[in-house]
Amino acid sequence: MFNDAVATERYLPAAILQAEGALSARLDVDIREAAETLRAIARDTGTPLVDVARQVLAGRPPAD
After folding, report:
1. How many CA atoms lie within 13 Å of 3's alpha carbon, on the beta-carbon side?
2. In b/e form, how buried is each residue of 35-58, taking b as 16+ CB within 10 angstroms?
3. Is 30 within the bounds of a domain?
4. For FRET with 11, which of 3, 4, 5, 25 sits at 20 to 30 Å CA-CA?
5. 3-62, pLDDT tens digit by residue?
6. Is the residue at 8 inside a domain?
7. Is 52 within a domain?
8. CA triplet 31, 35, 36: central angle to 5 degrees?
9. What distance in Å separates the CA atoms of residue 58 and residue 5, rounded to the nearest whole number?
């Protein structure tokens, strides 16, 4: 049986997972904290999560 994190991860677009890794490295935090940060930015700005992820991957500040 899969845990919730594994089951959820299977359905996330690759850009989101890659952005979590990039943000983790950029902020020097673990993946869980990077994922929470990515989602908080999306929620706070009203921007779709995948769009925030693409901004992170493009090297732009995600709040733009």
Report:
1. 1
2. bebbeebbeeeebebeebbbbbbe
3. yes
4. 25
5. 444 445 566 789 999 999 999 999 999 999 999 999 999 999 999 999 999 999 999 876
6. no
7. yes
8. 120
9. 26
Task: Note the pLDDT of residue 53.
Answer: 94
Domain count, the chain: 1
Distance CA 63, CA 58 (A): 13
Domain span at 26: 15-57
How far is 5 from 53, CA to CA, in rounded Å? 18
| Residue 53 CB contacts under 8 Å (≥ 6 apart), including other chains | 13, 15, 16, 18, 19, 20, 38
